[in-house]
Amino acid sequence: MSTPKPVEIILHRASHVLEVSYDNGERYRLPCEYLRVESPSAEVQGHGPGQRVLVPGKRNVNIAAIEPVGNYAVLLRFDDGHDTGLYSWNLLRELGMEYETRWADYLAELEKRGVGRDD
Questions:
Q1: Cβ(29)–Cβ(19) under 8 Å?
Q2: To which H or E segment does residue 79 belong?
Q3: Strands 17-22 and 6-12, bridge-based pairing
Q4: pTM
Q5: Number of domains in the chain
Q6: Which CATH number fits the domain that encloses residue 76?
Q7: CA angle, residues 33, 44, 72, in degrees to nearest 5
Q8: Assigned domain for 119 exists
Q9: Greater confidence, 71 or 2?
Q10: Concatenated DSSP letters for 3-69?
């Protein structure tokens, strides 16, 4: 079975949600805050295992621009100035499929460190 291909990407600015649809019928609504705190950039992921950085205070972040990168990814330019992570179509699909678990882990880590989504 082949990897699903993206067919549509829509930014819903008012609700701060990026909607990504694939040719197999999968559709994911990914909050901009979630995409920002899960950025694939080295700034967030670090340069190796165990170097991931917690990114609080992004509750109201939005995407300012979406730029295609070849046929495999998009560059999301966030309105907080972050623009260094390339979101491959596979990564966006993975983020969609794993949203509930990743988001719960993020919220638990914020609580553990005593910071909030608005800090």
A1: yes
A2: none
A3: antiparallel
A4: 0.94
A5: 1
A6: 3.30.2020.30
A7: 80
A8: no
A9: 71
A10: PP-EEEEEEETTTTEEEEEETTS-EEEEEHHHHHHT--SHHHH-SSTT------S-TT--EEEEEEE
- Residue 38, domain member (yes or no): yes
Look at residue 78 and tell me if it is in a domain. Answer: yes
Residue 117 has a CB neighbour count (10 Å cut-off) of 14
Per-residue model confidence as pLDDT tens digits over 23-82? 999 999 999 999 999 999 988 998 877 888 999 999 999 999 999 999 999 999 999 999
Domain of 98 in residue numbering reads as 6-113
- The burial class, CB within 10 Å (0-12 / 13-18 / 19+), for 36 is buried
Q: Specify the residue for token string 């994911």.
A: 28
The Cα 60–Cα 15 span in angstroms is 10
Residue 1 is assigned to a structural domain of this protein: no
